[in-house]
Amino acid sequence: MAGHEVIVRPFSDVHRTGNKVVATLLHDPTVEGLDVALYMDGSASMEDEYGPRGILAKLAPVKNLVEPQMQWMLEYLANKDRDGAVRVTYWASGDGSQIEVVGDLTGPQAKGYRFPGPKFYGKATIMLPVLRDFVAHIKQQVQAGARRGLAVIITDSQISDPNDVMAYATQVAKEISAGRLPRMNFVFVGVGDQVDEEQMEKISHVTYPGVGHLWCHRIADRMEEMAELVAVLVDETMTVAAGGTVTDEQGKVLKSYEGRLPAVLEFDVPAECKAFTLEVAGQKFTQPIPEEHEDEHHDEEEEEHHEPEPASAPAAPPARKHGGHRH
What's the sign of the alpha-carbon dihedral 176, 233, 123, 62? Predict the structure, then answer.
């Protein structure tokens, strides 16, 4: 049974019946090594969306519109994160340049977590500290195994420092191109009618040498649409390199997946084959094939009728896509 214990990430189960191998993926390997952070606007314009707090929260009928969206997003994003915990931060608080770190939250923690808003609502919406914070965070996480970064940034107003943001993003792209930083993406979501769409497009449309686009953006009409829109954008951003190839020890192609990689891979191998390699999104994962055991034969019929499902977290319902372009 020892052969059954050697399971390499991103696989959760591998077994062989005759010349047929069935390999189940633990998660979508296109996001292997991904570290995610969520930055929520804490400027004064958001105060009504968070609603009253303290004693006023008990007296007023106004609900916190942000909290359920944050909970939903966190649970979704945690499924993408390499260790299942997302860095959560309020930004644009205090004088507008401060950030308030909430902490690293898992999906289960997110379900009942309270998000009353920042301690001090900001007087401006200064984004540069967000980028600096995320880059510093990723540098730390690389030492712990992170190989890619994703920052989701939410705002409901115009950015106060677009030129600084663009200049810093240019430096980040140079560091990525030089191999000093891992690949990273910024998902930039605006909410409501106070967002400057032209400004968001100017930031997002820049193409960087050797890197391409760092940003993608869209605008949600209402706070209630925010979480769904984030899920759609993240899925589009992180599954650009869909599909994959399975090869044997000599590099011979055993199976090619042109579309999105299914959660269960089924393919035939030569009798002498002892391992296979899955190549996806520029990464290779080599998995030893466990020895065949007699007690597996009765499962063959059931396996043949198994319907593969997508290897990612459950997809969000389609969001209303308003304005903006994905880049």
Answer: negative
User: Smallest Cα–Cα separation from 228: which of 140, 305, 318?
Assistant: 318
For residue 61, whether the previous peptide bond is cis, meaning omega lies within 30 degrees of 0, is no
308: pLDDT strictly greater than 90: no
- Tell me the residue ranges of DSSP E strands in the chain: 11-17, 20-25, 34-41, 85-93, 98-106, 148-155, 183-191, 215-220, 244-247, 253-257, 264-268, 275-280, 283-288
Backbone angles phi, psi at 247, to 5 degrees: -125, 160
- Tens-digit pLDDT profile for residues 69-79: 999 999 999 98
Task: Give the H or E element holding residue 197.
Answer: helix 197-204
Longest distance between any two alpha carbons in the chain, whole Å: 73
Q: How far is CA 67 from each of CA 44, 85, 93, 221, rounded to the nearest angstrom?
A: 16, 18, 17, 17
Is the pLDDT reported for residue 325 higher than 60? no
Helix 197-204 / helix 162-177 crossing angle, nearest 10 deg: 20
Q: Give bridge partners of residue 280 from the DSSP assignment.
A: 283
> pTM for the whole thing?
0.69
Nearest to 130 by CA among 185, 95, 92: 92
Q: Residue 255 has which token pair?
A: 């199976």
